[in-house]
Specification:
There is one protein chain. The protein has one domain: Winged helix-like DNA-binding domain superfamily/Winged helix DNA-binding domain (Arc Repressor Mutant, subunit A). Strands 3-5-4 form a three-stranded antiparallel sheet. A two-stranded antiparallel sheet has the order 1-2. A hairpin with a 5-residue loop joins strand 4 and strand 5. By secondary structure, it is α+β, with helices and mostly antiparallel strands. It is built from six helices and five strands, in the order ββααβααββαα. The radius of gyration is 19 Å and the shape is elongated. The protein is about 45% helix and about 20% strand.
């Protein structure tokens, strides 16, 4: 498919393979690109973690924001929530196999960011 774009200089530019639907990159970014979402997934890589421990590790994020992102990750099938039979009742979060499949992407992003001082 070919699309013609007009630029400020009124020259026409032809663009090929225009995406009218969300492309694969956009779909992936919707899953892990939200504020704090990638960081939460990355911190869950070592196994189940309790909510309060996760909030300590993500010191810049509010509990409300972390809770919201965890619910989104759970609804997307990336995170599993487990209620513990303890007093007081505790909750842990861990990655599902689908969530674990995003870890190599986040690790590459971390390496790229560090190597470019971003």
């Amino acid at each position: 498919m070919e699309t013609v774009l007009k630029t400020e200089s009124k020259e026409e530019q032809k663009v090929f393979n225009t995406c009218w639907e969300p492309c694969a990159i956009e779909k992936g970014m919707r899953l892990i690109g939200g504020k704090w979402t990638g960081s939460i997934v990355y911190h869950l890589k070592e196994g189940p973690i309790r909510f309060n421990e996760l909030t300590r590790r993500l010191a810049g994020a509010s509990k409300k924001m972390i809770d919201q992102r965890l619910k989104e990750l759970e609804s997307n099938g990336m995170v599993k929530r487990q209620v513990l039979n303890t007093r007081p009742v505790g909750v842990t979060y861990e990655l599902t196999p689908f969530g674990e499949s995003a870890l190599h992407i986040l690790e590459e992003l971390r390496v790229w960011s560090e190597s470019h001082d971003i």
